[in-house]
Amino acid sequence: MGNGFIRDELEIKFLILYIAARVAQPLPLAGMQDLTMCDDGIDYFAFSVCLNDLVKTEHLRMTEDDCYAITAKGLRNSAICETSLPYSVRMRADKKIAACNKELLRQAQVRARISRRENGTYTVELSLNDDLDNLMHLELMVATEAMANDLANRFRKNPEQVYTDMLSVLYAPTNN
Fold first, then answer.
1. What is the DSSP letter of 40?
2. Counting runs of H as helices and runs of E as strands, what totals does the chain give?
3. pLDDT band for position 131 (50/70/90)?
4. Which of 3, 15, 77, 176 places its Cα 20 to 30 Å from the Cα of 56?
5. What confidence category does residue 2 fall into, taking pLDDT thresholds of 50, 70 and 90?
6. Distances (CA, A) of 61 to 22, 73, 101
7. pTM assigned to the model
8. Whole-number mean pLDDT of the chain?
9. In 3-state terms, what secondary structure has residue 58?
10. Are residues 94 and 23 in the same domain?
11. CA 100 to the chain's CA centroid
């Protein structure tokens, strides 16, 4: 391990539980790794061993989509042990967790799904939500998978603009 504040595997486990207790939803391995590597004292192999141990001891569980979720046992132990983590490590972890939670919220609010139709065309399903409800749900048919992927990517980058432009077009003054 490097020259960080984290000194042993027990502290790495505390950090992993600290993170898992604060993320908005279960994370895949890469997400847990990214958030946990906030201290120079942690290397990948120690992280991997600790993460697996936490699953074995039922502090964390694997979800159906291979993400790590904290259990009730993990929450209890995290609350007890979090003050054992160095303050500077907790602050760095909190900063990374906040950014991660912001991205997870964004992903939950903006969705684009592509499906192939029987006739060989594609349906692009675009959805925009706020904290309370669905603001927009739109299904478009396009000719190719490349077009479908392009529409989905453009929507994900700026869904608010799509929503605003649609309202502008639909509420434009009519020439009677």
1. T
2. 7, 6
3. confident
4. 3
5. low
6. 15, 11, 20
7. 0.79
8. 94
9. coil
10. yes
11. 6
